Structure to design on (550 residues):
């Protein structure tokens, strides 16, 4: 199945991937070169896991999870497999977010800094809790076979809206976190003196916004959506007894060689609706 | 023309209006009660115009500008009139944003604080510049009659995406600004001691996010979009010489009494395409 505007999609996807990758490099550069590196010791090096895990997990992986249905070379894979990949990426992102919060609480407690006083912490904790809720509802509604198809369809607009809103909010909360950390950590030279560390981390913030903007663009283009499994569905609803032959033919047509084994369960799709 | 889900729309719109209104009250309470009030003297009271103008103009008015086409009681008004209202609200929001930036530069310069060193300032200035570009392109493409209809249609997805992204970014930048200001301004008790001012302004930040979330929800529901002027358009494309009679009948059908005068130019719509 060909994608409309494939060239532009490839540019947007490559840019998102490259910028996301640079963000990870920059956050590692920040904590490893300018700060005290990474450790799990209750000190500043434990705190440093917070930005690293947020950028790699809660932003980069969540972004990839959002657009995983858009990748045209996955369109021959079953929708069910893609749902599992989407859920798994979001689950890993959630685990990264939880560990990153534990790192901050440990650091605060060891240094006698109060927890949960800042707007960053209020919105960040809310985002993690709502993300967990989104994950639980998403699995319950889209991965548990017993859930009625009508529920799945009715919940989809809210699932998509909440997902994009949470992703955007997480980036906004990260920008607040960057602001806080640069003000608190930089001293002689201070943040306002624009030392190299401040420039590097400001650039990280700008790139996080660009990454978010690209993911949102890719996710909201109607013409880049995974097509409904029209070919298979049409074949299925056309005939009764000849299903097997037709399905096999459609399946090999879709699989197109290389990925045929990996996506073998495409055959099963014809017997039920995908959402 | 009836709106699908009018009850839910009314709830979302009322909530957005109420929350936006509370945000304006809170930002005024912040600067008038906890800070040094409002003045144009190069000091802290001049800085205070910054949050006040951003919340009232760049966030509240911009939010209203975004959803102005969604208000069902405007659907009988001409699209052209609504475009002017949309542009005017955005223009006022832009002017508020520019004045609010002047206030900060004046304050920084008088107090010998460097300008443009923080991520807040980088992203904020970028947002204002791109907002200006969006305004100029929007007027050029949708309000200047000479622009070809095909250009208008081709640019629309980018216009909508940029508009929503800029609105979201402005809120994110405001949250960073709140974070900065509370850290810099609160001293004995500090931000981390959670004095009443910190709680009030954190609450303002949470409400700004809720306001943004409601505006984005309202703006992205397909069923709440202003209907294409189907009735009039259908009538127009059906016949040739009988246009005037048909148009008048459709017009009075749409105007529905009260707003007939205000929206009299609805009649003109049938002679050209609206975008």
């Amino acid at each position: 199945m060909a994608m409309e505007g494939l060239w532009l999609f490839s540019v947007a996807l490559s840019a998102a991937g490259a910028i996301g990758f640079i963000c990870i490099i920059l956050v590692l550069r920040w904590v490893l070169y300018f700060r005290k590196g990474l450790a799990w010791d209750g000190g500043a090096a434990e705190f440093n896991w917070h930005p690293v895990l947020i950028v790699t997990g809660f932003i980069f992986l969540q972004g990839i999870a959002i657009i995983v249905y858009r990748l045209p070379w996955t369109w021959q894979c079953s929708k069910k497999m893609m749902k599992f990949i989407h859920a798994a990426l979001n689950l890993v992102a959630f685990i990264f977010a939880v560990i990153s919060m534990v790192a901050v609480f440990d650091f605060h407690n060891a240094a006698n800094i109060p927890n949960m006083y800042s707007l960053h912490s209020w919105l960040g904790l809310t985002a993690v809790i709502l993300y967990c809720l989104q994950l639980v509802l998403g699995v319950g509604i889209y991965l548990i076979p017993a859930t009625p198809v009508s529920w799945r369809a009715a919940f989809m607009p809210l699932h998509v809206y909440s997902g994009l809103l949470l992703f955007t909010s997480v980036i906004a909360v990260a920008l607040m976190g960057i602001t806080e950390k640069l003000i608190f950590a930089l001293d002689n030279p201070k943040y306002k003196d624009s030392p190299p560390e401040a420039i590097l981390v400001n650039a990280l913030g700008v790139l996080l916004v660009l990454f978010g903007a690209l993911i949102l663009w890719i996710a909201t283009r109607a013409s880049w959506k995974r097509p409904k499994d029209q070919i298979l569905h049409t074949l299925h609803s056309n005939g009764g007894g000849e299903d097997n032959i037709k399905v096999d033919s459609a399946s090999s047509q879709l699989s197109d060689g290389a990925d045929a084994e990996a996506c073998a369960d495409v055959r099963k799709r014809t017997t039920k609706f995908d959402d």
